[in-house]
Write a structure and sequence with these properties.
The chain is α/β, with parallel strands linked by helices and 448 residues long. The chain is 43% helix and 14% strand. It has 19 helices and 16 strands. The protein has a 5-stranded parallel beta sheet with strand order 2-1-3-6-7, with helices on both faces. A 5-stranded parallel beta sheet has the order 9-10-13-8-14. The protein has a two-stranded antiparallel ribbon with strand order 4-5. It is globular. 33% of the residues are buried.
């Protein structure tokens, strides 16, 4: 047999299932070896080199989770997928947490199996240090950034849903893009969506699509975001903003791996890897009943936290160089920062994180007379004392009135800085678009 033929290990205690899987894989020009127990599977793993392992969840002397953990410990570069009983979501999630590449449910649909196998065989070897075709990079050499890059490389090798947590402006979408770009799905679309920017009444149509005539204005069939991301990655930013009725529908789409367009009579199969993020604490929202616990467990199979900028202040200088080059286009007269500017940035708490640093530099370039940005150009103030926070003195103006005035001013300033762009202003303040719009109405602010 040619050394170029890729090898798959099939482990199942039912001979008929093993034969079906082996015949299907043979039609994909793959060679297979078969085992009926965990012990037999481990023996074959030691004797032969494989490109993929498929294992049933239930075996006479153990289960698929045991094999997933064994492969992770002894053959970390080998993708392993599990075959679970229909509807056994808990075991599938447990397998993904243990490091499985993906799973399929019994009865096995051959198209799903072929898609899984094709994707798994595209995963680069774990030791592959060749540069990726990334359009995006994480700036910084701090320990926190080195660790995140390592985690991203590991997570990119699976299909598990990832929940990316972190404050507004830390770069959660960038992390999601890097996971996609380093994954077997990199040739397919990466579709980001801000859940807080879609009106509630349009969400189902936007996510799942609609059929012509299904409602007023539906003049043609329209695919949804899930269909647009098929075979690729769907990134749900600010997933905490999803209303309850959409949380139910999203959960079903994840479990069934299918969506039903508005007005359609049947579901459409979808092959999407789901990444999600929010600046809110989802565990608190679950405890308050504002976010479904079952959905939380499905999207949070693995959590990746993105650190605040003040937790990696040693990266500020690298970020400054990167943003100055990007903002100015790397012209012949590059901008630089004075020593006192770096000192001010080092003391500043950056509540808006990396996004705020970029906005500060954009403003400083506009105000700078020459090519050297001074501390005055940055326009930052030193952190204030606890006795008088932002000028408020207890016992004077009522606190509620004071806070409303500060909030109103922040909204107005954000609109001014973004040229009255509401979406950009909401991002600048770390708010969902829906919350931002509510605040504008509440305070009677006309953005023009």
């Amino acid at each position: 047999m040619s050394n170029n033929v890729r090898q798959v290990l099939v482990i199942d205690d039912e001979p008929d299932i093993r034969e079906l899987l082996s015949l299907t894989l043979a039609r994909m020009d793959l060679s297979t070896r078969e085992a009926g127990t965990v012990k037999q599977g481990k023996t074959l793993l030691e004797k032969h080199k494989f490109d993929l392992c498929l294992t049933d969840m239930r075996l006479p002397d153990g289960n698929g989770i045991d094999l997933v953990r064994h492969v992770q410990a002894t053959h970390p570069g080998l993708p392993i997928a599990v075959i679970t009983a229909f509807g056994n979501v808990e075991s599938a999630v447990e397998a993904l947490k243990a490091g499985a590449f993906d799973y399929v449910s019994k009865p096995v649909h051959l198209d799903d199996l072929r898609n899984l196998v094709s994707a798994a065989l595209k995963v680069p070897p774990a030791a592959d240090n060749a540069p990726h075709r990334n359009q995006h990079v994480l700036i910084g050499a701090s320990q926190a950034m080195r660790e995140i890059r390592e985690v991203i490389a590991k997570l990119a090798r699976s299909q598990a849903p990832i929940y990316i947590s972190g404050d507004s402006g830390t770069g959660k979408e960038l992390v999601a893009r890097l996971i996609h770009e380093q994954s077997a799905r990199s040739d397919a679309p990466f579709v980001p969506v801000n859940c807080g920017a879609i009106p509630s009444e349009l969400m189902e149509s936007e996510f799942f699509g609609h059929k012509k005539g299904s409602f007023t204005g539906a003049t043609a069939d329209k695919p949804g975001l899930f269909q647009a991301a098929n075979r690729g990655t769907l990134f749900l930013d600010e997933v905490a903003e999803l209303p309850q009725h959409m949380q139910v529908k999203l959960l079903r789409a994840i479990q069934e791996r299918a969506v039903r367009p508005v007005g359609a009579q049947s579901e459409v199969p979808i092959d999407v890897r789901l990444l999600s993020a929010t600046q809110h604490d989802l565990t608190k929202l679950v405890a308050k009943g504002r976010f479904r616990q079952d959905l939380y467990y499905r999207i949070n199979v693995i959590e990746l936290r993105v650190p605040r900028l003040r937790e990696r202040s040693e990266d500020i200088a690298s970020l400054v160089d990167h943003f100055l080059t990007r903002i100015t286009g790397g012209g012949s007269n590059p901008y630089s920062l004075s020593e006192d500017s770096y000192a001010v940035l080092g003391r500043y708490p950056f509540p808006g994180n990396v996004r705020e640093l970029e906005n500060i530099l954009q403003r400083a370039i506009a105000l700078c007379d020459g090519n050297v940005i001074t501390a005055d150009d940055l326009g930052l103030t030193e952190p204030e004392t606890a006795e008088s926070v932002n000028g408020y003195v207890p016992g004077g103006e009522p606190l509620e009135s004071y806070l409303e005035r500060i909030e109103c001013q922040a909204l107005t300033d954000a609109l001014r800085q973004t040229g009255q762009n509401k979406t950009a202003a909401a991002k600048l303040l770390g708010m969902s678009f829906r919350s931002f719009r509510y605040k504008l109405d509440k305070f009677g602010i006309n953005s023009g």
